[in-house]
């Protein structure tokens, strides 16, 4: 951005300097005008993305009038920073998120506020120190090796849906690093299918809650898939608590051990069994589902850019000389990192954050009454026509340009920002770079011409009809 644009990111227009044929991946075409009250409900029943209209991608702030009060959408970077960073205490997480996610995540740091959240965060931060990036790297390598063995069986040019495999490998990484367990294929399938069901019901429940309509039947439907996932995790945690009870300690050095042993320096207490289950469920679901979503989209985007794949292979060769993808080599893969960052920009796994005005506030020229929902949407901000050059185009090289660097400083927040920034951001990035570089190194990724994903916005941004690519082995020169 120019110096003037640094002061006001909404000034000026963008000029395309793209040196290759641009690829604009699919997203729901915005409506010309704002939907009526009733149309918003019916369109949002399936996906919140399908409610958006053209001005959503250019406005600085919007107001959506709902029964019982307005919902405010904030896109302007300085006010996003005000809400998420500078005055985070004045804009806590909205209770809507707890109501939606409690069946799955319990009372965890993803939805709590105030002193409860502060205590939980102190303990989780201690436990996550067990997940030092170099320490967990071998476990990630084991999960990726198992992934490649599975992919070898389908790397023959057939149509292949990647969503399930990306969910499997990221869930396996979390199992190995949090619980020191490998994830059985039957459990991986159960988790994947259960979470898809949970997302569908949760999206509908959120709409009913926003409209102040009776939501209990839909929220009740969320509980069955949530119980399936929690049961798989709680059985392992229960065994570990019993082990500690019997022997006075545990032989494992993983995140679960860290959660069990962490002592709050303020209150002097530890997580109970129930609290531990809640935090593990939060770390597991938030950690694997968001990464799986971003990786699936990354592979789809790369399938349309064989030139990028070739450049990535050259970069990998440069830093490995044909050897292993080591911890130090992964950290040098700048292009691979930019590909993942661009996938997160175009398809942020968590498409919006819901905050609540704790007191009457003024944002820009609007009065925001206490209790009002305030939405910050990475989906909109990261595709905003005045904040990004060619915002709908897939271009990882943008992050090396002057404009791209400036845009990423003020309008890039896939991991949120401020005190509630994702605790596993570095972990997820390392995992993604290892998985992406391993796949690109070993296979050519080609598009399925008859297939176009249909993005939907629910708890995370996924494709309603899956994401299909074709893999062909290229394990020759490397």
Task: Provide tags for this entry.
single chain, 478 residues, alpha+beta, Cytochrome p450, 4-stranded mixed beta sheet, 3-stranded antiparallel beta sheet, 17 helices, 10% strand
Helix/strand layout:
Layout lengths: L2 H5 L29 H8 L16 E6 L2 E6 L2 H10 L8 H11 L8 H15 L4 H20 L3 E6 L1 H17 L5 H26 L5 H32 L7 H7 L11 H31 L2 H15 L6 H4 L3 H13 L6 E4 L4 E3 L2 E3 L4 E4 L1 H4 L20 H9 L14 H18 E5 L7 E3 L3 E3 L4 E6 L5
Parallel strand pairs: 2-7
Antiparallel strand pairs: 1-2, 3-11, 4-7, 5-6, 8-11, 9-10
Helix pairs in contact: 4-8, 4-9, 5-10, 6-7, 6-17, 7-8, 7-11, 8-9, 9-11, 11-14, 11-17
What do you see in this structure?
The protein has a 4-stranded mixed β-sheet. A 3-stranded antiparallel β-sheet has the order 3-11-8. The protein contains 17 helices and 11 strands. Helix 5 packs across helix 10 (255-261), helix 6 (133-152) runs antiparallel to helix 7 and helix 8 crosses helix 9. The longest helix has 32 residues, at 216-247. By secondary structure, it is α+β, with helices and mostly antiparallel strands. The protein has a single domain (19-473), classed as Cytochrome P450 (Cytochrome p450), CATH 1.10.630. Strand 5 and strand 6 (366-368) form a beta hairpin. Helices cover 51% and strands 10% of the residues. Mean pLDDT is 91; it is low at 1-18.
